[in-house]
Design a protein that fits this description.
Length: 130
């Protein structure tokens, strides 16, 4: 999903293909990265309340249950020039509750982000699509 506001929005769904239900708490850690190198290009994310979804525990049922979240990536051009060098984010690193880390490519080749400021914002986990 794109936006004319200088932010790119992505809807993310996590599917539990296992035979046991699991739960996620709060919101994941998200960081813009160079996906080929798996190296950070800007500071990690900040939780942002969206659609009145509060952080809490979401149970993901077994055999196809899902949890949802919204990621926004702010363009370099939304920030003052001071303390803000240009970097190219080609993906994001998602870390769930301090456990598994997953790398996801962005829909475009890259997004220009600020190296000195937080450029990603993530919603809380939700049991319903946004």
């Amino acid at each position: 999903m794109g936006g004319a506001s200088g932010q790119e929005f992505y809807s993310i769904a996590i599917t539990n293909d296992g035979k046991v239900s699991c739960s996620l708490d709060g919101a994941p850690r998200v960081q813009p990265v160079n996906i080929a190198l798996k190296s950070p290009v800007a500071p990690a994310s900040r939780y942002q309340e969206m659609n009145h979804e509060k952080r809490g525990v979401v149970v993901i049922l077994s055999n196809g249950g899902r949890a949802y979240m919204i990621l926004s990536v702010a363009s370099l051009y939304l920030f003052p020039r001071t303390g803000c060098a240009k970097a190219y984010a080609t993906g994001i690193e998602l870390q769930f509750n301090g456990a598994q880390t997953v790398y996801l490519p962005l829909l475009r080749d890259s997004v220009d982000v600020c190296t000195g400021r937080m450029s990603t914002f993530i919603s809380a986990y939700s049991s319903k699509p946004y």
